[in-house]
Structures are given as C-alpha cells and as structure tokens.
C-alpha cells in the first residue's frame, strides 16, 4: 500500500459509478476503505457512497490517470473503458485489477472465445467471419448466432439467424458466428481469485431471461440441477479464471444443453448481475469478495445461507424520465424480500433500475414470492 494510505487501509479507485460500482463502494466503506469513483455523470449512483467522484468519461486518459494515481488499487464496474492508458499505468507499477490486459481480451468476444478454447474450456463451435454474407454463414451452417466482437451488452450485439430468410437480422459489424445451442438452462457461477491465487466459487445459479430484451430477468440460487452438473460447472468456472489469470470476482455465464453438456458462453471480469443474491443469501457478498480479492486479502466464505431468488427491476415500456416506483409498500410486505434501488436519475425501457432478492428455506416458494414482487413493482416515470 502507498505511504499515504489510511493507516494500512487501501484507497480503492473504481472506474464506473453505476449500480455495481455503488455496491462495491458500499462494501469498501463498511471495511473502512477510502473510495474514489470515476464516472461521466455527476451524482452517479456510486457517488453517494464514495469519498470522491472524478467527473470524466471512461476514455479520458487524464481522468483515468488521476484516479489510478490516487488509488492503491483500482478496479472497474464496466468493460467499455479505455485499456491502452490503463496498460501503460499498470506497466509503470500501478495496481489495476483485473488486469487491463485481461480486460482487453474480454472486450473482444472472439479473442475471449479463442483463449477459452485453447485452454480446453468447453465452448460452442464458433468461426470468425470475414464478411457478413450468406456465403459466409452457409459455410458455417444454419441455424447460428452472430455476435459482434465488441460493444455488445445486455442482449445488444447478438443476432439469431436460423436460415437464409433471417439475413435481414444480420449485424453489419466486425463479428463471428457460433452454433445455436439447444439450451436446457442458462447457468452462471461467480468465482473469486485473489492476488495470492486463492480461489473460491459461489453456488451455481440458474438465469431466466426476458425474451423481449434478452436481459436477465430472474436468478435462482441454487440452480435446480443435479449434483454432478453443479460440481462440473464450478470446476469449469475455476478453470476459466485460471486460464484468464483473473483477479477479483468474475462472472462465468454458461449454457446447459439438452444433452447435459455445459458450455461457457462468456465471462464478465467484475461482479455480475447473477451474483446480486449473494448480498443477503451468502456469508460474503460478491462485492465484499471483489474488494478482498483485489486487495490481496483472504477470501471470505461463499457458503449459501439460504435459497434465494433475485429479480431485476427494469424500466417499464413507454416511460422515459425521472423514475417513479409503483407498488413499493405492497412489495415490502412480502416476507423475506429485500429491495435495492440503484439511484439512477433517469429511467428508460428495460434499463436496470434496481433489484429485489427474496430468501426462503424453500426455493420454489422463493420463486413464487419473487414473481409476486415482480408483478407488483413497476418502475415508471413522473
């Protein structure tokens, strides 16, 4: 730690002040750390629980350098940031975790897939395409999924092309194609690795997606799968973090196909939406774990204390403006429910505005309660 650290407590810098940055900052402050955040929006969600906000965009080299130089260790809550200045700063000895070299790989989904395949991680068959043409797609074979190499997020940058008739849906950008997996369930594992190589996995969770926007709608912990599949998924997650030499908490998203095979879909180099349930349901939340990991501290227990279900609160269709939450009081009457609102100043259709987690000894009852809360709570605009 630097000489000017707070009596041994590190100064944490977070690039990105959205909901993930906010929840990281909350855990860091609980532990007594000094927190700086960089975000272009004055009064961003994380600013309310941080010591300093630097206002600047994620590609502003001067602002990035300002944050890094006043921090003992820096991290990020978003992938879409400039890696070149961060790599230069890391090469000079500044601590940025996960490494910006890893982030550069994660930003290019094709490069990410190639590294995972080379490491022997199970992934769907894929192919780089030189041009977006029927001939290229035919070469690979229909049906297929076309994915933008860069910039995709929350369902954007993905096109399902089942036949030649779907070519109008094709993305005209630098991309690759992969087989359309016959999915039984979508799974995720949050895995933590600290600077000393200690690794811990959280329970395997099941993700349910909102088909309208292809955004994760519900997370069920633990996943309703057989024990052998659970163990296999956790082992794969550990292999992924080792292959990427990741430090911090990483979200490993997976497909379980109809034949019982587990395939890695993609990796998030940060706490992830599928790990929000850990705040109430695990001995150590994913956010505290991330802070522990990047600071080289011992990792906390990942024990699941109670089955839990998390539901995202998305902005309602047809509403754009200052958020207004309907059903708040009624939802709080549901036993075992925890309400989280992120503090974003503007709501938009399908924007992640908050989440609720329901804990219950019976996972099916937790699902029922979470679905009830989802039907009650509506994020509209004033």
From TrEMBL:
<dbReference type="Pfam" id="PF17769">
    <property type="entry name" value="PurK_C"/>
</dbReference>
<dbReference type="InterPro" id="IPR054350">
    <property type="entry name" value="PurT/PurK_preATP-grasp"/>
</dbReference>
<feature type="binding site">
    <location>
        <position position="147"/>
    </location>
    <ligand>
        <name>ATP</name>
    </ligand>
</feature>
<dbReference type="Pfam" id="PF02222">
    <property type="entry name" value="ATP-grasp"/>
</dbReference>
<keyword id="KW-0436">Ligase</keyword>
<feature type="binding site">
    <location>
        <begin position="265"/>
        <end position="266"/>
    </location>
    <ligand>
        <name>ATP</name>
    </ligand>
</feature>
<keyword id="KW-0456">Lyase</keyword>
<feature type="binding site">
    <location>
        <position position="186"/>
    </location>
    <ligand>
        <name>ATP</name>
    </ligand>
</feature>
<comment type="subunit">
    <text>Homodimer.</text>
</comment>
<keyword id="KW-0067">ATP-binding</keyword>
<dbReference type="GO" id="GO:0004638">
    <property type="term" value="F:phosphoribosylaminoimidazole carboxylase activity"/>
</dbReference>
<feature type="binding site">
    <location>
        <position position="109"/>
    </location>
    <ligand>
        <name>ATP</name>
    </ligand>
</feature>
<dbReference type="GO" id="GO:0005524">
    <property type="term" value="F:ATP binding"/>
</dbReference>
<dbReference type="GO" id="GO:0006189">
    <property type="term" value="P:'de novo' IMP biosynthetic process"/>
</dbReference>
<dbReference type="InterPro" id="IPR011761">
    <property type="entry name" value="ATP-grasp"/>
</dbReference>
<comment type="function">
    <text>Catalyzes the ATP-dependent conversion of 5-aminoimidazole ribonucleotide (AIR) and HCO(3)(-) to N5-carboxyaminoimidazole ribonucleotide (N5-CAIR).</text>
</comment>
<dbReference type="GO" id="GO:0005829">
    <property type="term" value="C:cytosol"/>
</dbReference>
<feature type="binding site">
    <location>
        <begin position="178"/>
        <end position="181"/>
    </location>
    <ligand>
        <name>ATP</name>
    </ligand>
</feature>
<dbReference type="InterPro" id="IPR040686">
    <property type="entry name" value="PurK_C"/>
</dbReference>
<dbReference type="InterPro" id="IPR016185">
    <property type="entry name" value="PreATP-grasp_dom_sf"/>
</dbReference>
<comment type="similarity">
    <text>Belongs to the PurK/PurT family.</text>
</comment>
<comment type="pathway">
    <text>Purine metabolism; IMP biosynthesis via de novo pathway; 5-amino-1-(5-phospho-D-ribosyl)imidazole-4-carboxylate from 5-amino-1-(5-phospho-D-ribosyl)imidazole (N5-CAIR route): step 1/2.</text>
</comment>
<comment type="function">
    <text>Catalyzes the ATP-dependent conversion of 5-aminoimidazole ribonucleotide (AIR) and HCO(3)- to N5-carboxyaminoimidazole ribonucleotide (N5-CAIR).</text>
</comment>
<keyword id="KW-0547">Nucleotide-binding</keyword>
<keyword id="KW-0658">Purine biosynthesis</keyword>
<dbReference type="InterPro" id="IPR003135">
    <property type="entry name" value="ATP-grasp_carboxylate-amine"/>
</dbReference>
<keyword id="KW-0210">Decarboxylase</keyword>
<dbReference type="InterPro" id="IPR005875">
    <property type="entry name" value="PurK"/>
</dbReference>
<dbReference type="Pfam" id="PF22660">
    <property type="entry name" value="RS_preATP-grasp-like"/>
</dbReference>
<protein>
    <recommendedName>
        <fullName>N5-carboxyaminoimidazole ribonucleotide synthase</fullName>
        <ecNumber>6.3.4.18</ecNumber>
    </recommendedName>
</protein>
<feature type="domain" description="ATP-grasp">
    <location>
        <begin position="113"/>
        <end position="295"/>
    </location>
</feature>
<dbReference type="GO" id="GO:0046872">
    <property type="term" value="F:metal ion binding"/>
</dbReference>
<dbReference type="InterPro" id="IPR011054">
    <property type="entry name" value="Rudment_hybrid_motif"/>
</dbReference>
<dbReference type="InterPro" id="IPR013815">
    <property type="entry name" value="ATP_grasp_subdomain_1"/>
</dbReference>
<dbReference type="GO" id="GO:0034028">
    <property type="term" value="F:5-(carboxyamino)imidazole ribonucleotide synthase activity"/>
</dbReference>
